[in-house]
């Protein structure tokens, strides 16, 4: 289960999506389960290969973290709207809610807890550090394979390293933002538990989602109707134009015939 433990580190922040996407390609979870990711040796830190692998891992992390950040921001807004709806927003803001450093809570907030349980992956006792997360992602890049790069001297390598570090700064910012959204969501969720409103919040969220889907469907239908109406209008305009052109040609022929037959 060592490999499974490593998978958990990835799942908690939510790079687990990399593994999920890989499973779709490999289509054999047993193969991934047998691989001991912790045994995959990273390149030496002073090598160009290390930074190529790290750069690709940071790119994967950034894409996934930005997606999760957006999801958590949306969840935070939904919880805030529900608190306003039930008239508890002010009371919640003044309540002193402590969020435990519990991986189960974070996995639940990120929407990955069910996936972990289905894969029988145990949660770690502590959340992973940034470096642990990056190193795991690097091992996954090595496992999946990557395209090497050819550098033109040490200066070229250093420029690439500088770019990688800049990318990493942004990825860490996204992770920090996401963590803040997760904490806000957990605070509100824990508070709702203290006033026995979690079930009501779930039901309201489902209702809002259904209503939003209906609105989107109505908007799509309206857009289709608008395009259909515009197409019919263009067809009618074209028909009128053809009729007018035909009438003009007929009138022109009549005029020519009249002036020819009755010319003085």
Description:
- This protein is mainly α and 264 residues long.
- The chain is 78% helix and 0% strand.
- It is built from 10 helices and no strands.
- It has helices at 2-11, 16-26, 29-34, 48-85, 89-94, 103-110, 113-118, 130-144, 154-194, 198-261.
- Helix 1 (2-11) packs across helix 8 and helix 4 packs across helix 8 (130-144).
- The radius of gyration is 31 Å and the shape is flat.
- The protein starts with a helix and ends with a helix.
Residue share in β-strands: under 5%
Q: Uncertain spans, ≥5 residues at pLDDT below 50? A: 1-33
User: Can you give the mean pLDDT?
Assistant: 79
What structural category do the secondary elements indicate? mainly alpha
**Contiguous helical run count:** 10
Order of helices and strands: HHHHHHHHHH
Rg of Cα set: 31 Å
Our measurement of the CA-to-CA distance between the termini, rounded to an integer number of angstroms, reads 110 Å
Q: Can you summarize the main beta sheet? A: none
Q: Characterize the overall form.
A: flat
Helix content: over 70%
Number of beta-strand segments: 0
């Amino acid at each position: 289960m060592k490999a499974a433990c490593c998978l958990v580190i990835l799942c908690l922040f939510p790079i687990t999506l990399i593994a999920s996407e890989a499973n779709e390609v490999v289509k054999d979870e047993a193969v991934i389960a047998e691989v001991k990711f912790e045994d995959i040796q990273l390149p030496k830190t002073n090598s160009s290969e290390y930074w190529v692998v790290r750069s690709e891992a940071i790119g994967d992390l950034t894409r996934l973290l930005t997606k999760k950040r957006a999801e958590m921001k949306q969840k935070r807004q939904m919880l805030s709207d529900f608190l306003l709806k039930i008239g508890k927003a002010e009371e919640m803001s003044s309540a002193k809610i402590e969020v435990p450093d519990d991986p189960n809570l974070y996995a639940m907030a990120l929407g990955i807890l069910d996936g972990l349980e289905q894969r029988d992956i145990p949660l770690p006792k502590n959340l992973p550090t940034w470096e642990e997360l990056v190193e795991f992602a690097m091992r996954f890049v090595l496992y999946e394979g990557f395209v090497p790069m050819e550098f033109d001297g040490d200066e070229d390598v250093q420029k690439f390293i500088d770019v990688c570090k800049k990318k990493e700064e942004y990825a860490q910012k996204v992770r920090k933002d996401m963590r803040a959204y997760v904490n806000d969501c957990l605070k509100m969720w824990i508070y709702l538990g203290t006033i026995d409103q979690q079930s009501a919040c779930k039901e309201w969220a489902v209702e809002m989602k259904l209503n939003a889907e209906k609105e989107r469907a109505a908007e799509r239908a309206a857009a289709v109707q608008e395009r259909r109406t515009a197409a019919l209008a263009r067809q009618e305009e074209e028909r009128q134009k053809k009729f007018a052109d035909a009438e003009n040609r007929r009138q022109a022929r009549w005029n020519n015939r009249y002036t020819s037959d009755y010319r003085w």
